[in-house]
Automatic annotation (TrEMBL):
<dbReference type="InterPro" id="IPR029026">
    <property type="entry name" value="tRNA_m1G_MTases_N"/>
</dbReference>
<dbReference type="Pfam" id="PF01746">
    <property type="entry name" value="tRNA_m1G_MT"/>
</dbReference>
<keyword id="KW-0949">S-adenosyl-L-methionine</keyword>
<keyword id="KW-0808">Transferase</keyword>
<feature type="binding site">
    <location>
        <begin position="132"/>
        <end position="137"/>
    </location>
    <ligand>
        <name>S-adenosyl-L-methionine</name>
    </ligand>
</feature>
<comment type="subunit">
    <text>Homodimer.</text>
</comment>
<comment type="function">
    <text>Specifically methylates guanosine-37 in various tRNAs.</text>
</comment>
<feature type="binding site">
    <location>
        <position position="112"/>
    </location>
    <ligand>
        <name>S-adenosyl-L-methionine</name>
    </ligand>
</feature>
<keyword id="KW-0819">tRNA processing</keyword>
<dbReference type="InterPro" id="IPR023148">
    <property type="entry name" value="tRNA_m1G_MeTrfase_C_sf"/>
</dbReference>
<dbReference type="InterPro" id="IPR002649">
    <property type="entry name" value="tRNA_m1G_MeTrfase_TrmD"/>
</dbReference>
<protein>
    <recommendedName>
        <fullName>tRNA (guanine-N(1)-)-methyltransferase</fullName>
        <ecNumber>2.1.1.228</ecNumber>
    </recommendedName>
</protein>
<comment type="similarity">
    <text>Belongs to the RNA methyltransferase TrmD family.</text>
</comment>
<feature type="domain" description="tRNA methyltransferase TRMD/TRM10-type">
    <location>
        <begin position="1"/>
        <end position="224"/>
    </location>
</feature>
<keyword id="KW-0963">Cytoplasm</keyword>
<dbReference type="InterPro" id="IPR029028">
    <property type="entry name" value="Alpha/beta_knot_MTases"/>
</dbReference>
<dbReference type="InterPro" id="IPR016009">
    <property type="entry name" value="tRNA_MeTrfase_TRMD/TRM10"/>
</dbReference>
Amino acid sequence: MRFDIITVVPEILTSPFEASILKRAIEKGHVEIHLHNLRDYVTDNYKQIDDYQFGGGAGMVMMIEPIDKCITALKAKRDYDEVIYMTPDGETLKQGIANELSLKENIIILCGHYKGVDQRVREHFVTREISIGDYVLSGGELGAAVLCDSIIRLLPGVLGNETSALTDSFQDNLLAPPIYTRPAEYKGWKVPEILTSGNTPKIEEWREEQAYARTLALRPDLLSEEEK
Ligand code: ADE
């Protein structure tokens, strides 16, 4: 899988891919991340990528031309499945979106800045708009990193244990059950006995019950009316 990320601050997007699981995913060839500095696609001497809003109003707007040049140059080299624009008014990122996007091959991610991009970019180039939550960040870069992480960890071979992404919270619209490791008792605080019983079917049943109970208590919005 390949991500081409268009940004005015590529430095924000270097470190997330230089450590741990994402770094290894790149090294093992599961994913390629290519950062594109929008300023490299500006023809004027001032390297201007934004301008005042038509009609007035506070805040600068990212101009269409450099974005067009960058996306067109990328599309000349390969086909893209999606051009995603990171914006607080996009659809909120959910596990289901990460699952769906993990099946794609080539994705362009455009990071917004200032007030955002000229509306014509959204109308003519963007295929999908994603927000990582109902709050406003200073730019789309951290959102892009979050989106990439949520997708890359799902790619086959990226996580050591193939089943571990499937047992994450949200994978079946349930929160994950509580987890424990050694020691079985610490300062008098004990691990639930069932988990050390060796009775695998009973353990599975306990985990399902716990996942359901936690979801009902903490995130009832994830359950359908019949499930409540
Ligand atoms: N850019 C600014 N805020 C954002 C958000 N919440 N999600 C995605 N991109 C953003």
